[in-house]
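Progress narrative, Year 2. Work on TonB-dependent receptor from Methyloradius palustris advanced from sequence curation to structure prediction during this period.
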Amino acid sequence: MSSDWESLGLSTSSGFKLDVRYDYLDQNQLRSGTGKISPQAASGIVNTGSRNPANDGPQEVEKYTKNHYVTITGDYNFNPSWGVQVQVPYIDRSHATLGTSSDGVSPADEAYESGTKNIGDIKVIGRFQGFTEQHNVGVLFGLKLPTGDHRQTGISTDPAALGDVAAIDRGLQPGTGTTDVILGVYYHDAINKDWGFFSQGVVQTALNAKDDYRPGNGLNLNGGLRYTGFAGFTPQLQLNARYVARDSGAEADTVSTGGTLVYLSPGVVVPVNKKLSAYSFVQIPIYQNVNGVQLAPRFTASVGARYSF
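Result:
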């Protein structure tokens, strides 16, 4: 999701901009495929023939994953055609799982609870938008760097190992341990004096595996519409789609990772003065098709502020 029209690099004015954004994401709903599933039903699933034999057997039943993200983004336009953006995320995540061989109520094999607070993986993304005189067609190119920790641990709630140190699933670590390449394209234009739109597609793929883990390739497709006819605020409506392939490797969950998600995201941007603006968005899932059994959110809430120097 784009938290502000200019955070995609859709501004041609030279100079530096600083964006601070907070996202709240409470994954508390078990889903399988396109529907909901109860913990009791999920515990009865037996996985076979997965790409990682360690994932074969009774399905893991997760309880919740609560995420708080604070992302600081520095954005610099060298000129109307070239710019660069650096995104630094801080992740506060709590997670609990009933493990495998559970009855859907009580902890069992490999159950644990965890709380992680750490800098995540930093992204450095360049852009070029000099293809047209309007500078409204652009390409994105960059890297996700392995700056986040991928070795954090939790506390076992498995009755057979209560209180022991437990490994956190690699997909729940603050970092993946991999360097990923990011490539994208975007286009924006005005419909008339009050209405404008943007469209964007971004691909992210890991260049390597780290400690027997490689995150699945991802594709993000975003479209947005905004109305600028009001003096005190600018309403926006975005459609955000994301496809992610399954993770791979001996340390990966190759069954219950990846899927296709589509969100409708209404929001508003409010100018505080000529340099400062505030924004708020809510992401509402309208289509969810997950592999295996996964936790999903009922909504995502985002608030933030952007300052132009």
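The chain has a mean pLDDT of 93. The chain has one helix and 17 strands.
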